[in-house]
């Protein structure tokens, strides 16, 4: 293997830090790019004279391409060398970014985002597999903690950075700042990147890829549209129904194939199955603050997008700084004590978020959000790493692909669920408050239009606040489910590798 020695777990004795550094930078800019554009959507609507639903496809389309390609990443990671795969992914991402910066129309910008996403979707699973292969189990916590630094910090910094750039420059600057980083990373990968992971001569099952695309793509589109279009819309119900059928057919086919696109038999390993369940539940709870906080801060409190992003920045920094520390603690104490402690903090802070008022102070919101992120930082990576640790080395590509796919789907489902809860509660509360206000008015009196408008605005604000608080309350119960599951976690060692021929392509 190019002169590198292997340890008992199949990892190289001296981790390839140069390779990992190049992959880190590529993954960071690709994840940062996912959340960078959200604040810029109004500016893009204005420039291209487009509707909100049309512009929303810049985010939805990006997510759909990720959802379609991530399940297939297990095949790509096993079939091709990490060098070839990263150069391809980074090339696609760089071309997409350059095209987006100069896009003359919304259609070209959407195509550019799709090209970006096709590169981005491969980077995270690739980086995770290189990390798992390069470090023995007893050092994986610290390594995956550094990986968490990328996974957590990049999307959290995105809204703050984009808010500042949009306030001072054009939305195209969001792509301009990424281009040089992406280009330099691509050049480094061409001249410096080496192969460290083994390859297998496997064939792509086209029908599995089609069923996977229909299944995960349908579910992601349906649930992502539910918040805006409502559950009774055909644009929600039909994609979800088609997605469920496609997913069931995809699973049945994988269980019958000798070389499946995505290996569902990994759920025979109990700690991986448990870590998946906790991650799905926690992803749904995590989206409550990421989704509901901007609505509360910007819509109800009238705080600017920039200051809204600034409010969340300390939490992002704490989560990023804690990730390597949590990784080392995981190596020493295991996942259970970290997950239980972190979930208790998360549950308590989420409970405090369910009691917001229309004059809750900015500093209180910032401290509470930061504490919540501190709790989350103790859970996500330790739980995921503990589950992956039980898998044999050859199953790691499937484990990372499954985890990344489930995060996408559970995030979409959680967002749709919580937004729907908020909207339904807001509507029912608005009706109650309107009835109460009418009863309090003296008989025979009719308020003037100005008073009526003021009363309606007050009622809607109170109703929306009630809806947001209710969604946070439900998030408490979702996080409680994760806490109960966390008590069943235990330390594991990798299962012995099944005897299969592996070759390394250089």
Automatic annotation (TrEMBL):
NCBIfam families: efflux_EmrB. It comes from the Bacteria. Belongs to the major facilitator superfamily. EmrB family. Pfam families: MFS_1 (PF07690). Residues 19-493 form the Major facilitator superfamily (MFS) profile domain. PANTHER family: MAJOR FACILITATOR SUPERFAMILY MULTIDRUG TRANSPORTER MFSC. It comes from Pseudobacillus wudalianchiensis. The keyword Transport applies. The keyword Cell cycle does not apply. PROSITE patterns: MFS (PS50850). It is found in: Cell membrane. Keywords: Cell membrane, Membrane, Transmembrane, Transmembrane helix, Transport. This is MFS transporter. InterPro entries: EmrB-like, MFS, MFS_dom, MFS_trans_sf. GO terms for cellular component: plasma membrane. It is a multi-pass membrane protein.
């Amino acid at each position: 293997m190019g002169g590198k020695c292997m340890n008992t777990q199949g990892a190289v004795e001296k981790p390839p830090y140069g390779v990992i550094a190049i992959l880190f930078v590529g993954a960071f800019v690709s994840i940062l790019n996912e959340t960078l554009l959200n604040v810029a959507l109004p500016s893009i609507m204005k420039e291209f004279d487009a509707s909100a639903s049309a512009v929303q496809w810049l985010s939805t389309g990006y997510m759909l391409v990720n959802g379609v390609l991530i399940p297939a990443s297990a095949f790509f990671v096993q079939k091709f060398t990490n060098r070839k795969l990263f150069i391809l992914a980074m090339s696609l991402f760089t071309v997409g970014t350059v095209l987006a910066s100069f896009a003359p129309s919304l259609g070209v910008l959407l195509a550019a985002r799709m090209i970006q996403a096709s590169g981005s979707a491969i980077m995270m699973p690739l980086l995770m597999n290189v990390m798992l292969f390069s470090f023995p189990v007893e050092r994986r916590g610290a390594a995956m903690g550094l990986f968490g630094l990328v996974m957590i910090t990049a999307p959290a910094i995105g809204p703050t950075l984009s808010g500042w750039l949009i306030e001072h420059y054009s939305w195209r600057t969001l792509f301009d700042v990424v281009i040089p980083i992406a280009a330099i990373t691509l050049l480094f990968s061409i001249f410096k990147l080496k192969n460290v992971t083994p390859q297998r001569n496997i064939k792509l099952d086209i029908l599995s890829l089609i069923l996977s695309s229909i299944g995960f793509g349908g579910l992601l589109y349906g649930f992502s549209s539910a918040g805006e279009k409502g559950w009774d819309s055909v644009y929600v119900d039909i994609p979800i129904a088609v997605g469920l059928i496609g997913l069931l057919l995809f699973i049945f086919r994988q269980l019958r194939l000798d070389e499946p696109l995505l290996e569902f038999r990994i759920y025979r390993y109990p700690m991986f199955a448990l870590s998946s369940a906790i991650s799905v539940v926690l992803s749904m709870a995590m989206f409550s603050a990421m989704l509901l906080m901007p609505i509360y801060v910007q819509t109800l409190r009238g705080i600017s997008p920039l200051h809204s992003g600034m409010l969340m920045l300390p939490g992002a920094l704490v989560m990023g700084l804690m990730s390597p520390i949590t990784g080392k603690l995981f190596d020493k104490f295991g996942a259970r004590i970290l997950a239980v402690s972190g979930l208790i903090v998360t549950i308590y802070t989420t409970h405090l978020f369910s009691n917001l008022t229309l004059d809750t102070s900015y500093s209180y919101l910032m401290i509470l959000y930061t504490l919540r992120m501190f709790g989350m930082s103790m859970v996500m990576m330790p739980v995921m790493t503990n589950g992956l640790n039980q898998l044999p080395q050859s199953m790691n590509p499937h484990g990372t692909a499954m985890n990344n796919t489930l995060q996408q789907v559970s995030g979409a489902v959680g967002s749709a669920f919580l937004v729907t809860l908020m909207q339904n509660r807001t509507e029912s509360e608005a009706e109650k408050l309107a009835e109460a206000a009418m009863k309090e008015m003296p008989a025979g009196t009719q308020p003037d239009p100005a008073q009526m408008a003021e009363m309606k605005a007050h009622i809607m604000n109170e109703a929306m606040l009630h809806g947001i608080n209710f969604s946070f309350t439900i998030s408490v119960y979702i996080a409680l489910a994760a806490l109960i599951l966390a008590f069943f976690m235990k330390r594991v060692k990798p299962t012995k590798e099944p005897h299969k021929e592996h070759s390394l392509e250089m």
